[in-house]
Design brief:
Two copies of one chain form a homodimer. Chain A has helices spanning about 10, 15-25, 40-50, 65, 90-100, 110-135, 140-165, 180-195, 200-205, 210-220, 225-230, 230-245, 250, and strands at about 30-35, 55-60, 75-80, 85-90. With about 260 residues, the first copy, chain A, is α+β, with helices and mostly antiparallel strands. Chain A has two domains: about 5-100, Glutaredoxin; about 110-250, Glutathione S-transferase Yfyf (Class Pi), Chain A, domain 2 (Up-down Bundle). In chain A, strand 3 (about 75-80) and strand 4 form a beta hairpin. Chains A, B: It comes from Linnemannia gamsii.
């Protein structure tokens, strides 16, 4: 049985949840299954990197065959290993919340955690809205929906986040003076925009928000993140993200809606 | 100062986050600000109801004026009160995560919490996708995107969730034999579909998934939830949700994208 043939039913259900929680609390290694692009997988990769985890990256060999064997028919899937035991978790936000909490990136108390989740969800929502209303929308309306996205959703998000970052002292972080899940997710949202064929238009809007730019520089200049972002693997992921989003319908063979 | 004129900067920043966390841990009462429809506010209302909280509901009087005074320029906003102190939190998922955790609806350990978050996020993602690709999409493509949504995203979500619910013993819950945030969010997603002008088509697909129907019945027949769902206020919210989504563009005066 390979990792990618594992689903919750096979692995998780035979063990009491309290035992699975113990594996999650003291993991020895991780394996992250995701497509060979940044998109919804990159924040998990960054969290594993920032946390100094023992982890490996994997991509599906034949996604259409493997899809139904994953817990939700979607990626990323995270395999959490301890000795001969394993826990499998899925759904982007569940995976990212677990990793962020495990590596101390959810703040120092419940108020900070809630605020981090608020900024995080605001960026996640903008990503989802962008994917559905622009990237995967019908080609005949994409020009109009892109214009609407830029003038409304993106402009509003930039204004709101810029204000919060300035209120926090423009120190490159959303909460206090330390790295959090929200910092990393927002940087990946900005990177995602930069990979689009019309990315220059989106980045032009973001470039007018110096505190957001400072946030990106702060996250990307963290020593572990800097090393990872400059690795051959990370550069390849950035290149293949650009190539994928140049024509996502062609890449997936999906019908155009 | 009315509640709706409060933002994070005014209220939260003058108090150390550890003090704000204490207010959140021992709240005396809540006020939830949201539009007078179900949509993104109903899960918070249900959580407050299920938790037996002392809470009141409020709606903006003039949203365009009040918008910039909220933390993210969006609703719901939750005001958490203890004596003369108050914490203001916003962004749907951050509010819902806090309330669910506070009222014991996030499972018994980190594994259960992660699984609850996975099911929850899967339902939240489907909601977001539906809003962006169908409800708020350009009218000229809505028929096509609705067809695509039904045959792909909705069908896939129903299949995946039905399988998990059956694996959990078809007991009306996602995890173990107790109510969770995921149960409540999924029921509100199904209700949201039922409010759409083409709701019958969507409900026809869901009606073929008996474990999802069982989940809805279980949540809605909980004594506190049953009483709340049958109150005049809740019935009015359901009616106004239907009325709103009959023509959402007309209701908001938004341009059609």
């Amino acid at each position: 049985m390979t990792h990618s043939q594992t689903n919750h039913a096979q692995v998780n259900r035979t063990t009491p949840s309290s035992e699975l929680a113990k594996i999650m609390a003291h993991p020895e290694s991780f394996r992250l299954l995701y497509f060979p692009v940044e998109a919804q997988g990159q924040t998990s990769r960054d969290l594993l990197t920032y946390g100094g985890a023992n982890w490996e990256s994997a991509s599906p060999q034949n996604w259409l065959e493997e899809k139904d064997k994953t817990p939700f028919g979607c990626l990323p899937v995270l395999f959490i290993n301890k000795g001969d035991k394993q826990v499998v978790i899925s759904e982007t936000h569940a995976v990212e919340n677990y990793l962020a909490k495990h590596f101390g990136l959810m703040g120092d108390n419940d108020y900070e955690e809630t605020m981090i989740r608020a900024f995080y969800c605001s960026s996640v929502s903008l990503f989802s809205n962008f994917q559905a209303s622009v990237v995967w929308n019908m080609p005949e309306v994409r020009e109009k929906t892109l214009a609407g996205f830029k003038s409304r959703q993106l402009a509003h998000w930039v204004k709101t986040h810029e204000r919060h970052l300035l209120e926090n002292g423009n120190n490159g972080h959303y909460i206090g003076n330390k790295m959090s899940l929200a910092d990393i997710r927002t940087v990946n949202l900005i990177r995602h925009f930069s990979f689009q064929p019309y990315g220059a238009e989106l980045m032009e809007i973001i470039s007018q928000a110096p505190a957001l730019i400072k946030l990106r520089e702060t996250v990307e200049s963290d020593p572990k993140m800097h090393q990872w972002k400059n690795s051959d693997e990370a550069k390849k992921l950035a290149d293949s993200s650009k190539a994928f989003f140049a024509n996502p319908f062609a890449a997936t063979g999906k019908p155009t809606a």
